[in-house]
Design goal:
The complex is a heterotrimer of chains A (296), B (549) and C (268). Chain A is an all-alpha fold and 296 residues long. In chain A, helix 4 packs across helix 9 and helix 6 crosses helix 9. The longest helix of chain A has 39 residues. Chain A is flat, with a radius of gyration of 24 Å. The mean pLDDT of chain A is 82. With 549 residues, chain B is α+β, with helices and mostly antiparallel strands. Chain B is built from 17 helices and 21 strands. In chain B, the strands form 6 sheets. In chain B, strands 11, 12, 13, 16, 17, 18 and 19 form a 7-stranded mixed sheet that branches. Chain B starts with a helix and ends with a helix. Chain C is mainly α and 268 residues long. Chain C is built from 13 helices and no strands. The chains are: A mainly alpha (296), B alpha+beta (549), C mainly alpha (268). At the A-C interface, helix 1, helix 5, helix 6, helix 7 and helix 9 of A face helix 4, helix 5, helix 7, helix 10 and helix 13 of C.
Chain lengths: 296, 549, 268
């Protein structure tokens, strides 16, 4: 009986959370529509500089742009279309946005997940190694490497990836790794200096069991928060990296849409990115609280 | 023990990394030419082509009535065996080849040409190709009396009529595939959006080489969509692509050092970089600046004070020529060679400025009211050579006491400023000229037109020289003899040199990169520089590639 | 201070001194073009060679250091302050306030801020002095760059909220604001420092990217971002290794910031 009730409560909670996230995502998308609409260069096209167009054609082109004029009516049409699963049509690419998103999302998702995986693995290993050594040489060289990686422009990292024929996710992991490493290292150091860990070591417990049973559970909540953050960083890095590596993913789509002021595309890409980040962070949060709840 | 485990795991990770590395570059099957498009093709309908990527596909797949040979700059019969333009310049009659078929087998006849022209001249259709034919109000009449003759009559004379048909790819009136059925050397076999376009040989292509073998030699052409020029050059170096159609000066130098046989400089092209001052009367500028920009002596002095040979030598590493007018010397027929070539002369510039009331005081130039002469040049961001040109112009003009600021803007913001709000002082941009005929620049020189950048859409000409330009442009558009048109156009170039509404800076060279594996290439000054004769190109064994692989 | 920290602090002081007294050291004004020697190698007249327009690279590096070293840490400080305030308040107060702050953070990471920056550029007059335009750019970056660390700070603040010493302070009648400032914030300092020094190179590089919008440093003013953008051509850099000097300098500065700031603090 209690289990059923618990499950029902959990389900209701999850549903409420999910609809809250959806509303937030849509609010974000509409806000980005406002930003784009009022930024300079909206409704202006490069083709206006082509001297071959006659005056009537240029007028006709300008009339086309007037369709997106009213922001309130744009909101209304967009939301009603969204309710039917229709994401609209891209102005610059002249194809349905849904098709574009379906094509590109898996590629970017793949790159981000693999990139994050490699970055986390590398950061964790090196943080642990650093912990074990704790000498000044290790710290200095670790600092040098992560400073170098932070100081390289993402354009250069992407070009290096192209030079070495490495796929885009390698560039993403190189960008995320230095930011993770330092946080993880200070987190681990603080966790190992906790009194109960010292007590466990004094009692002669093996290092593996200390790590799994005493250090990790306490470090879990901030680590999961870090997971959410690294997700955001990876997504942010994916945009210029994909644009530079010419990998046909969501990042490149967002870049092109921004350059050509393609309103329907930008709004939908923002919606997807919002939802993905909100969902990832919400899951990380829940997992963190579950962990904290369990150990207490 | 933990440390040992970690070291082992780290080593495993490091060793695993090579397996993450992507697949090696695809080897070239015999007969597939591989190069890059700089953007996504927006359409495959040849009537609606506006940008470079779609234009490239149209060039390779479309069959045209007459083809402009990019090397000799003369018209050659293509689908039309011969043609005749009536004396009044309004009607053109074509005699077509017989027995031809579209790529899907549909027979080709005069009603296909009629269908194409009717669709192109539809007033609801807005395309640069169609607009080039629109010389006046009225209906266009198309007659196809027999299956191999077609006559098109325009309401008003169209200047350079037959050359315009180089851009009109003939569509099939009857084929179920609509615009995908083509008469050119290749047809679109596959399109992966965002990634690549595959063109396959059209076995029904009409052209044969001098031994009677059917063209094209190539089996297929793969066009990758690659926006980044650094990556394009990288791929060319690796042998993944065979050619780069338009190469910038810095990449040219890089390639020339490594692969001298591959880098080709066909000489000065038609493209020009120029600067102009905002002369719009309603612009949100101060009155004093408006007065400066409207003074002819001011503009001429600025033009004299800019060292164009330094610009060509430093910014473009010698791969550009100083430009002084709207027509490049590469355009043999239309260039006015009798115009004097101005020299770089800052002393003469100061003298000219003194005539307009400007004085040099303690190293700064001041106008007649004592205001310091200073202005801002806008240009589009991401173009290194333009930023460098403005940096050099800053130093040149500082020697006559003028302070120049630079603001780079992203392209849409820039266009908004120069076409809508007119909130700018001076602008530096380039013009990509694909057409030799001056009539294509009608909308630049007519004072009522959109592209009369320094003061567009005037209700009546603001100055006498702009009124004269209007008269000359209308005259050359309706003139029937090329000699008369050249006289008008020479006078236009003279007025531009005297008034300097556009201060022309350089004509860039037409540079391309072609791998030695491509046999039969002949880089030309006209676009497409590297593959204008795609139907006659062949792939041979590449000696350089052989060494690498 | 440990010897490593002392060395790092000394290096930073030297670099700052170099930056302040740059005018004495430079061989030529940074904008002067020696058009006969573009892309030259190191020589007695030009110790670090010249750039593509023949301008002395050493002068440009020293002047660029001024812009970047003054403004990037200022922007990093601004963004860290905003993140610190929001994150610790959210973690400490918890409940719906925390949820709102975290949701706003997530959404603002996904928004195309490009367009806000474009609007700012459009509102600025074209003849605004270049230095003012750069200061505005860094201000915008500081105001928009806080999102990444809010979550981590929030999680850590939540952890501190449940600790014993805070319970003691609260039961002694400490007001929430004082609790936040005197008890929670000092314990989160390592995280703040980590965020600060990570942001510095980020803002230096972002300034280079902002030149696409017209908000970065305009010709002829140099900046590290401008100098670093030339690295996309590897073969040229490999052939002219002195061009790596700006990158090396940036790495050294970032390393020094990281080593100087105490980022390993033990709780109690």
């Amino acid at each position: 009986m209690i289990k059923h009730e618990k499950a029902a409560i959990l389900f209701r909670h999850a549903l409420r959370r999910f609809s809250f996230l959806l509303c937030l995502g849509i609010a974000g998308a509409l806000f980005s529509a406002t930003l784009v609409r009022f930024a300079p260069g909206y409704g202006v096209q490069e083709r206006e500089l082509d001297p071959r167009w006659s005056a009537q054609s240029v007028e006709a082109l300008r009339q086309e742009q007037v369709l997106h004029e009213g922001l309130a009516s744009f909101y209304f049409h967009y939301l009603s279309a969204l309710a039917h699963g229709d994401f609209g049509e891209s102005d610059s690419l002249k194809r349905p946005v849904r098709e574009l998103l379906a094509q590109r999302l898996p590629l970017t998702g793949n790159a981000i997940i693999r990139g994050l995986g490699v970055a986390w693995l590398a950061a964790a290993l090196l943080a642990y190694l650093g912990l074990a050594s704790r000498g000044w040489f290790y710290e200095a060289s670790g600092t040098a490497v992560s400073s170098l990686l932070l100081s390289l422009p993402s354009a250069v990292i992407a070009m290096l990836a192209v030079h070495l024929r490495a796929p885009a996710f390698c560039a993403i992991s190189v960008v995320v790794f230095p930011r993770l490493h330092r946080y993880m290292r200070s987190l681990l150091v603080r966790s190992y200096d906790q009194p109960h860990v010292l007590a466990a070591r004094a009692r002669g417990l093996g290092s593996v069991s200390i790590f799994w049973r005493h250090v990790l559970p306490l470090a879990m909540p901030p680590l999961l928060a870090l997971l959410g953050v690294s997700f955001a960083i990876a997504f942010g890095a994916a945009i210029p990296i994909e644009a530079l590596c010419d990998s046909p993913g969501l990042g490149q789509l967002a870049w092109q849409a921004a350059l050509s002021r393609d309103l329907p595309l930008i709004v939908n890409v923002t919606l997807i990115v919002c939802l993905v980040m909100l969902a990832a962070n919400a899951l990380a949060d829940l997992a963190g609280r579950a962990f904290a709840g369990d150990t207490q | 023990m933990i440390r040992r485990v970690c070291v082992v795991l780290t080593l495993t990770l490091v060793l695993c990394l090579p397996s993450f590395v992507g697949a090696d570059s695809a080897s070239q099957p015999g007969g597939e030419l591989h190069f890059c498009l700089r953007g996504e093709p927006k359409t495959f309908n040849p009537l609606l082509v506006e940008e470079d990527a779609s234009e490239a596909i149209r060039y390779l797949t479309g069959g045209v009535l007459v083809r402009l040979n990019r090397q000799t700059q003369a018209l050659e019969p293509s689908l039309a065996v011969s043609w005749k333009v009536s004396p009044d310049g309004r009607t053109i009659k074509f005699w077509l080849r017989t027995g031809l078929h579209f790529s899907d087998g549909t027979p080709f006849a005069s009603d296909d040409v009629a269908y194409t022209m009717k669709a192109l001249m539809d007033p609801q259709l807005h395309s640069p190709t169609g607009d080039s034919f629109r010389s006046g109000e009225g209906q266009v009449e198309i007659q196809a009396p027999t299956s191999d003759t077609v006559a098109v009559t325009f309401p008003a004379p169209v200047a350079g009529l037959e050359r315009l048909f180089d851009q009109v790819a003939i569509l099939s009136a009857h084929s179920p595939k609509k615009e995908m059925a083509v008469l050119g050397p290749f047809y679109v076999a596959d399109y992966a959006p965002g990634s690549s376009v595959l063109l396959r040989r059209n076995t029904n292509y009409w052209k044969k080489d001098k031994d009677g073998k059917p063209l094209p030699y190539l089996d297929s052409i793969r066009l990758d969509i690659q926006r980044n020029r650094d990556i394009e050059v990288l791929r060319f170096r690796r042998g993944e692509i065979h050619l780069i159609n338009a190469l910038d000066a810095e990449y040219f130098d890089r390639l020339q050092k490594e692969m001298p046989a591959a880098a080709h400089d066909a000489g000065p092209g038609l493209d020009a970089e120029f600067m102009w001052f905002n002369q719009v009367p309603t612009a949100p500028l101060s009155e004093q600046k408006k007065n400066w920009f409207r003074a002819t002596e001011f503009r001429k002095a600025i033009s004299m004070a800019i060292n164009r040979s330094d610009l060509s030598r430093v910014v473009f590493s010698g791969h550009a020529q100083p430009a002084f007018g709207p027509v490049s010397p590469a355009n043999h027929f239309w260039f006015n060679s009798s115009l004097p070539v101005p020299q770089y002369d800052s002393v003469g510039a100061l003298r000219l400025l003194a005539q307009a009331g400007f004085r040099l005081q303690d190293g700064t130039l001041r106008d007649s009211s004592g205001n310091r002469v200073e202005f801002t040049v806008i240009t589009n961001s991401g173009n290194k050579s333009r930023e460098q040109m403005v940096a050099m112009i800053q130093q040149d003009l500082s020697q006559i006491g003028i302070k120049v600021n630079l603001v780079t803007l992203d392209f849409p913001s820039l266009i908004e400023r120069i076409t809508r709000t007119y909130d700018y002082e001076a602008c530096l941009l380039g013009l990509v000229n694909t057409d030799l005929d001056p009539n294509s620049q009608m909308n630049v020189w007519l004072s009522s037109a959109e592209n009369h950048q320094w003061n567009p859409k005037q209700s009546k000409p603001a100055t006498t020289w702009e009124a004269e330009l209007d008269r000359l442009m209308h005259s050359q558009a309706s003139a029937t003899s090329d000699k008369k048109r050249k006289a008008d156009w020479d006078r236009v170039q003279q007025i531009v040199a005297e008034q300097q509404p556009f201060i022309y800076l350089v004509n860039k060279d037409a540079m391309s990169a072609i791998s030695p594996a491509v046999v039969g290439s002949a880089p030309s000054v006209l676009d497409p520089h590297a593959y204008w004769n795609a139907d006659a190109l062949r792939l041979g064994p590449d000696p350089a590639l052989g060494a690498q692989k | 201070m440990s010897p490593v920290q002392k060395a790092a602090a000394l290096t930073l002081c030297m670099i700052f001194a170099l930056m302040v007294f740059a005018t004495i050291f430079v061989p030529a004004p940074y904008a002067r073009q020696f058009r006969d020697v573009p892309n030259a190698g190191p020589s007695t007249a030009h110790p670090l060679g010249t750039d593509a327009l023949g301008r002395d690279s050493l002068s440009r590096l020293l002047y660029g250091t001024r812009v970047s070293l003054l403004l990037a840490p200022a922007a990093a400080l601004l963004s860290t302050l905003i993140a610190a305030v929001l994150g610790s308040a959210a973690g400490f107060l918890g409940g719906s306030f925390e949820r709102i702050v975290l949701a706003v953070t997530d959404i603002s990471l996904a928004l195309p801020w490009l367009f806000l920056l474009l609007t700012v550029r459009a509102m600025l007059p074209l003849d605004v002095p270049p230095m003012a335009s750069v200061i505005i750019a860094f201000l915008m970056m500081g105001l928009l760059g806080w999102q990444a660390s809010v979550r981590v700070i929030c999680a850590a603040a939540r952890g501190v909220r449940d600790s014993d010493f805070l319970l003691l302070a609260r039961s002694s009648g400490c007001k929430p604001v004082r609790l936040l400032l005197c008890q929670v914030a000092p314990n989160l300092r390592p995280l703040f420092y980590a965020q600060f020094w990570i942001s510095i190179p980020l803002f230096i590089l972002t300034e280079a990217n902002l030149s696409i919008l017209g908000l970065g440093v305009m010709e002829p003013m140099p900046s590290w971002g401008n100098l670093l953008r030339g690295f996309e051509d590897f073969s040229a850099v490999a052939a002219n290794p002195w061009r790596l000097v700006p990158l090396i300098l940036l790495v050294i500065v970032v390393m020094c910031f990281q080593l100087v700031l105490p980022s390993q603090e033990v709780i109690q």
